[in-house]
């Protein structure tokens, strides 16, 4: 790897930007795809660009064959992010689970008695109001947002902000009755049924979860399902 390529990769990582290093396996010629990439010695046609786009979207390094040429696409994506609104018992379990699964976790809760380092060791905490916290974060298709407080004063602003952005997953804790009330409030705010249907509620896979650990497992399972399978979701 050339020094200029390494420098560009390090800069992309520092900027939390995605990049892909494409290597032609026969010759060893390489080209970096990403912000600030130096000129490469491997021309990329439309077909190879399509493979690179797929590898970045799937977050998976891969081999590709185009005609007689074989390539390896090495993906360098920043960690996916999970934003948990509500420093509650479920969050105490979900945060380390998600970190083990490769997520950069942020817990948002303006209630100082909940969002403490003792309860969330090593986890990024913010005591801003959820909508303010989310506005300050780079919420994109690599982000999941889960609200756990059961308090409309905290959950609703977070959900409204999330629905105006493009996270790959939005989940909200609460029963079907609780969610029906939530849907009514969101409609009053101006969101339509298609937008509200992006919210997974009751949050998590239906595995009969009861304890905080089981609920956290169901949430991470549903996030993983959406991340890799992206199934359609019926309107609420």
Element-by-element helix/strand order: HEEHEEEHEEHEHEHHEH
Helix content: 25-40%
Radius of gyration: 20 Å
Number of H/I helices: 8
CATH-wise, what's the superfamily of the largest domain? NAD(P)-binding Rossmann-like Domain
Low-confidence spans:
230-236
Number of domains: 2
Biggest pleated sheet: 6 strands, parallel
Strand proportion, as a percent range, falls in 15-25%
- Outline, from the CA principal axes? elongated
Explain what this protein looks like in three dimensions.
Helices cover 38% and strands 21% of the residues. With 236 residues, it is α/β, with parallel strands linked by helices. The protein has a 6-stranded parallel beta sheet, sandwiched between helices. Helix 3 (89-100) packs across helix 8 (212-228). The termini are far apart.
Task: Explain the layout of strands and helices.
Layout: H1 3-14, E1 19-24, E2 30-33, H2 46-58, E3 62-66, E4 69-76, E5 80-85, H3 89-100, E6 103-108, E7 124-126, H4 130-135, E8 143-147, H5 152-163, E9 169-172, H6 176-189, H7 193-196, E10 199-200, H8 212-228
Parallel strand pairs: 5-6, 5-8, 6-7, 8-9, 9-10
Antiparallel strand pairs: 1-2, 1-4, 3-4
Feature tags:
single chain, 236 residues, alpha/beta, Rossmann fold, 2 domains, six-stranded parallel beta sheet, 8 helices, 38% helix, 21% strand, elongated, disordered C terminus
């Amino acid at each position: 790897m050339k020094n200029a390529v390494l420098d560009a990769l390090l800069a992309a990582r520092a900027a939390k930007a995605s990049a892909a290093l494409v290597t032609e396996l026969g010759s060893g010629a390489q080209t970096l795809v990403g912000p600030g990439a130096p000129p490469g010695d491997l021309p990329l046609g439309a077909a190879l660009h399509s493979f690179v786009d797929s590898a970045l979207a799937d977050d998976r390094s891969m081999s590709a064959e185009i005609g007689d040429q074989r390539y390896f696409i090495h993906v360098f994506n920043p960690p996916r992010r999970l934003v948990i609104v509500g420093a509650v018992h479920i969050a105490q379990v979900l945060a380390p689970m998600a970190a083990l699964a490769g997520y950069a976790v942020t817990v948002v809760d303006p209630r100082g008695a909940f969002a403490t380092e003792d309860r969330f060791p090593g986890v990024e905490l913010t005591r801003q109001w959820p909508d303010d916290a989310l506005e300050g974060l780079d919420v994109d298709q690599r982000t999941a947002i889960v609200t756990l407080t059961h308090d409309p004063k905290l959950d609703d602003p977070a959900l409204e902000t999330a629905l105006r952005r493009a996270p790959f997953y939005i989940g909200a804790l609460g029963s079907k009755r609780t969610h029906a009330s939530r849907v009514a409030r969101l409609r009053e705010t101006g969101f339509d049924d298609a937008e509200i249907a992006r919210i997974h509620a009751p949050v998590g896979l239906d595995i009969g979860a009861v304890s905080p650990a089981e609920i956290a497992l169901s949430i991470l399972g549903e996030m993983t399902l959406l991340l890799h399978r992206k199934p359609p979701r019926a309107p609420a």
